[in-house]
Design goal:
The protein is α/β, with parallel strands linked by helices. The protein has 7 helices and 4 strands, in the order αααβαβαβαβα.
């Protein structure tokens, strides 16, 4: 069965949102996703249609872990690494959201040298990265250049 854009969007919507006013969704709760379904779903579909194998995934800024949950569901990377400073109010539920997903967590600010070194020491060339930590241009640029 071929996966369609609507299927991906519906899965994201059905999984739960962190905030309906900001991210949409059908209900607040569940995996506490902090992505807009009609923005994330086309990205996932494009990766699936490219037939590129995503063996490793790095997520900078994970909050509750909803995005990692969704990426794991559709792309099934062998290795997932999340970098988060645990300052988001929902960070404490990430272990529950990602409880059945094998992943590594690097706790720290993505802009700190110590955090970047921890990721570098994992010795992984990531196939896919989601940068969603610092939402300012300079911060995003720094994460792109660092990771």
């Amino acid at each position: 069965m071929e996966l369609k854009l609507n299927d991906i969007e519906q899965f994201i919507l059905d999984s739960g949102s962190d905030n309906l006013g900001t991210f949409g969704g059908l209900f607040e709760g569940g995996i506490q996703c902090q992505q807009v379904a009609d923005e994330l779903a086309p990205c996932i579909l494009a990766i699936i249609e490219s037939r590129e194998v995503i063996e490793s995934y790095l997520e900078i800024g994970s909050a509750a872990g909803g995005s990692a949950f969704i990426i794991n569901h559709f792309l099934k990377p062998d290795k997932i690494v999340v970098v988060d400073d645990n300052q988001h109010p929902k960070a404490h539920i990430r272990p529950y959201i990602l409880r059945d997903i094998t992943h590594d967590e690097v706790i720290g600010n993505s802009h700190d040298d110590a955090t970047a070194t921890q990721v570098e020491n994992l010795d992984i060339l990531f196939d896919l990265m989601m940068i969603d930590g610092d939402h300012f241009y300079e911060g995003v640029k720094a994460d792109v250049e660092t990771y």
